[in-house]
Specification:
α9 crosses α18. The chain folds into three domains: 92 residues, Orthogonal Bundle (Fumarate Reductase Iron-sulfur Protein, Chain B, domain 2), CATH 1.10.1060; 153 residues, no CATH class; 126 residues, Rossmann fold (3-Layer(aba) Sandwich), CATH 3.40.50. Strands 5-7-6-8-9 form a five-stranded parallel sheet. α17 links the parallel β12 and β13. With 427 residues, it is α/β, with parallel strands linked by helices.
């Protein structure tokens, strides 16, 4: 801890003819920086990737925009201050609360990069054998099964049986495709994720897109695992996916998940995997004139910008273009949207840390966001990330908002307007 500064007071002093008693002429000796135990600070900033923590000059801009600070005592500035006071970050709960949303970096004048620093320090903590139990379980399942849900790879394409349209599994088709759809884990296995996958399959079929999926050969893209500190696991998953993708001919890699989008744009090229990658909303926006949006969807809808589609990768327009084209739909914006969007809490491994976060936060970030959506008067909260439908649907229930707000993927709303039927029904 720091040395307390010594106060100096004079019995009496006169300034411009005014006598100042001791309590009004008090000054303090300089507090020497060497009075602090800076070992925790120097250890953290010595970790490769975490060097920028040392750039912080405590302006506090990050505190005002950090979503976790809205539900707890947290921000990059506060983390750094605790480091300066001797609290090792690799042994602190603070390390696991960051959702890597990127809002702090957006406003930081010194470019303190928590998107690099937090995963680097988490990696060190994992090497030291410390990780929240629920995160460790998701990482173990990812390594063992290729997905964090612990599901069998052989069941990865089972969702397609409900689509009612042909879905090529490339291992069986044995022919080139124009579009290779990288479905990802939650759309393959989670019940609500599968609903969105079915909707998108029907839309692609209606557009006569020549597409196929990897099915049992696909493994998690691994970006959330990387951000949770498991770079080695990420590289294992990525290298396996790159080897698999190299076996097939395709023009466009279509992804459902913004986290996979981020990985394929920025991380896979470093390992040799370079692809023309589009998020599904971007792909469909390019084909908007061909979408037969005939049925009205008479509802007030607000859209939640996924951090890894919007703030991290700059795509704000494609989802809004699609929603605005649906007849009868009224699109309204939440107060925090686009670059200033509030985080759902699922990024950076947060999808698998809700139980841990409950001990350190007054409410879930998804609950805050659901209440913001309700404030707009919206009947539907539209999303474009597989993490968000289950997260927000849980938040609707936990905030007592059941019946007031419905959560739907953009693909589900498009399929509804195209008359393609609900998931599980014949198109």
């Amino acid at each position: 801890m720091g040395i307390k500064a010594q106060a100096i007071e004079l019995d009496s002093v006169t300034v411009d003819g005014v006598d100042l008693p001791p309590q009004w002429n008090r000054i303090f000796e300089p507090r020497p920086i060497r009075g602090y135990d800076l070992r925790a600070f120097t250890d953290a900033t010595a970790v490769a990737g975490a060097e920028s923590l040392a750039y912080c000059f405590q302006c506090g801009k990050c505190t005002g925009v950090c979503p976790v600070n809205a539900v707890g005592d947290y921000s990059p500035r506060k983390i750094l201050r605790r480091l300066q006071l001797g609290a090792p970050l690799t042994e602190s709960p603070d390390l696991w609360l960051c959702a890597t949303c990127g809002n702090c970096l957006r406003v930081c004048p010194k470019l303190v990069d928590m998107i690099s620093a937090v995963p680097a320090l988490r990696e060190q903590a994992l090497l030291d054998g410390w990780a929240p139990k629920e995160l460790a379980s998701a990482l173990e399942s990812s390594a063992r099964y290729g997905n964090p849900l612990g599901e069998s790879p052989r069941r990865r394409a089972d969702w397609a049986r409900s689509a009612g349209v042909p879905v090529k599994v490339l291992q069986e088709a044995g022919a080139p495709v124009d579009v290779l759809w990288f479905v990802e884990c939650y759309p393959s296995y989670h019940p609500r994720g599968r609903d969105a996958a079915v909707a998108l399959a029907r839309i692609l079929h209606a557009l006569s897109v020549d597409f196929g999926i990897l099915g049992p050969e696909e493994r998690c893209a691994g970006d959330s695992q990387r951000l949770a500190g498991e770079r080695g696991l990420f590289e294992q998953l990525a290298e396996q996916n790159i080897r698999t993708l190299a076996q097939y001919e395709f023009q466009t890699l279509l992804v459902t998940d913004p986290h996979a989008y981020n990985a394929f744009l920025h991380e896979y090229p470093r390992l040799g995997g370079v692809y023309h990658t589009l998020h599904y909303t971007q792909f469909l926006a390019q084909h908007l004139p061909q979408l037969p949006l005939r049925r009205e969807v008479p509802a007030r809808v607000t859209f939640h910008d996924p951090c890894y589609l919007g703030r991290h990768n700059g795509e704000y327009e494609a989802p809004r273009q699609l929603l605005s084209a649906i007849p009868g739909l009224e699109l309204v914006e939440m107060g925090r949207s686009r670059a200033q969007s509030f985080c759902c809490g699922g990024g950076g491994g947060g999808m698998w840390l809700d139980g841990f976060a409950q001990d350190h936060e007054s409410s879930r970030l998804s609950e805050v966001r659901v209440l913001e959506a309700i404030e707009t008067g919206a009947e539907i909260l539209a999303v474009a990330c597989p993490y968000e439908v289950p997260r927000f649907e849980d938040a609707v229930k936990s905030t007592g908002s059941a019946g007031r707000l419905k959560v739907m993927d953009v693909s589900e709303l498009l399929a509804l307007s195209m008359g393609l039927g609900p998931a599980g029904a014949e198109a």
